[in-house]
Design goal:
Shape: globular
Structural class: alpha/beta
Number of domains: 1
CATH class: Alpha Beta
Helix content: 40-55%
Number of helices: 11
CATH architecture: 3-Layer(aba) Sandwich
Radius of gyration: 17 Å
Length: about 260
């Protein structure tokens, strides 16, 4: 197994596999991994190839490649069926995986993500950004992204979250991040396949998310019949870090079959 990962909680616990976004690493899910594992779940949080401690030689990594890596990890850990969650790019990888391997997933978490394609301008911007960070590294890119990643309120009140997000982005390996950007630019449209998802799904979004606004989450919620939508006030693109208590409560309620009203 080539992916670095953490495996927390009892081996016999209900397995939950959480997929980080770009340009982060598995520490993005630390609050949820700790919360769920303390409540008896087995929580697996990998670094995607090219991120964190997982290496790659790719110059372009398609989301299908990331999805297959996760299936390989699940096989390695003997997880026949598992809860699968992802945020942003991680959510798109989740949609790819459930499309390609529908029998493996027992329930879904789709956080601050969107199912459709990029505009031509946004697609080109991914290619351009990949070339740029390959040449100059992650530092300036991270500083430009930071104000859009977390809400103004979070930046004013949670310096710990801001520091964590900045550290993950600045430390992301530039080659892996660039390869993912190129692959993501060429991803398919997941919208037509959403109505084929037949497992319970939790859709979460922050009210202040600039990258994937509430409307994107509402579309996913409408298309997946057995889904619940939770909108977290005051959070930007990373509600699991910005408002971890509300996020954890929503996820725990979902996993136990209860309704959660923030």
């Amino acid at each position: 197994m080539n992916l670095a990962y953490d495996d927390l909680g009892p081996e016999a616990g209900r397995p939950v596999l959480l997929v980080h976004g770009h340009p982060f690493d598995r520490s993005m899910w630390r609050p949820q991994a700790e919360h769920l594992s303390e409540n008896g779940y087995r929580v697996v949080t990998p670094d995607l190839r090219g991120y964190g401690q997982s290496t790659t030689r790719d110059t372009k990594t398609g989301l299908d490649v990331f999805a297959n890596d996760l299936i390989d990890l699940a096989d390695h850990l003997r997880l026949e069926s598992f809860v699968l969650g992802g945020l942003s790019m991680g959510g798109q990888i989740v949609m790819q995986l459930v499309r390609d391997h529908p029998g493996r997933v027992a329930a879904l978490l789709l956080a601050d993500t969107f199912a459709g394609l990029d505009t031509p301008q946004a697609k080109q911007a991914r290619y351009d950004t990949a070339d740029r960070i390959t040449e100059e590294g992650m530092e300036r890119y991270a500083e430009e992204l930071l104000p859009k990643m977390i809400s103004r309120q979070t930046r004013a009140t949670r310096p710990d979250v801001e520091a964590h997000v900045r550290k993950m982005m600045r430390n992301a390996p530039k080659e892996g991040a660039a390869a993912a950007l190129r692959g993501r630019a060429e991803r398919p449209d997941y919208t037509p396949t959403l109505n084929r998802i037949d497992v319970p799904t939790l859709v979460v979004v922050g009210t202040e998310d600039e990258f994937t606004p509430v409307g994107d989450a509402e579309l996913i919620h409408r298309e997946i019949e057995d889904s619940a939508l939770v909108v977290i006030e005051g959070a930007g693109h990373l509600p699991n870090l910005e408002r971890e208590t509300e996020f954890d409560e929503a996820l725990s309620a979902f996993l136990t079959g209860k309704r959660f009203t923030p």
